[in-house]
Design a protein that fits this description.
three-stranded antiparallel beta sheet; four-stranded antiparallel beta sheet; mainly beta
Amino acid sequence: GTVTLTDESNDEVYNTTFAVDESAAAADDAYNITVTATDGAGNTNTTQTNALTLTTSDQTPPALTDAAAIDLDGGNVTEDDSITLNATVTDTGSGVASVTASTSAFGVESVALTDENDDSVYNGTFAVNASAAAADGSYTITITATDGAGNTNTTQTDPLTLDTSDQTPPA
C-alpha cells in the first residue's frame, strides 16, 4: 500500500504513522520501506529506510505448568544434594526452543531442562554446590520456557530450604 508523509511542523521532516494489517501482511522477515519524494514540478527521488522486522505470527509464549523442584534426599537441601526439576511446557506456534532453570541460589548458575520422552515434561537434575550457594534460607527456582519465535514464559517452583551449615555429626 501507499501512505502519504506530511511536514506538519514546516521543518522539512516528513513522517507518518501506519498500522500493519496482519491478514494482508507479507511473511515475517526484515523489510526496507521505499520512500519517494515528489516536488511541485513532478521530479522524484527515491530512497529506502533501514530494515524493519515484520513479525505477525506466534506472539504467544509457551504454556508452562506443573513446575516442581524436588530434593531427592528429602528434608532440607544440603551440600551435594541432588535436586530434580520438572515442568510441563507446550507451544502450538513455533514449538519449544529451550527450558532453563535459574538455580544460582543453590550454587549452580543455570540448568537446561530437556524433554527426552517427547511428552512435554521437561526435566533436569543438579547437585547443590554449597561453596557457591546463597546464605541458608528458603528459595524458589525460576523456570523459563522460550519458543522458536523468542516468546518467553516464566514460573517459580515451591520453595526449598537451603541449609548448608556444618552437617558433620558430633564425634
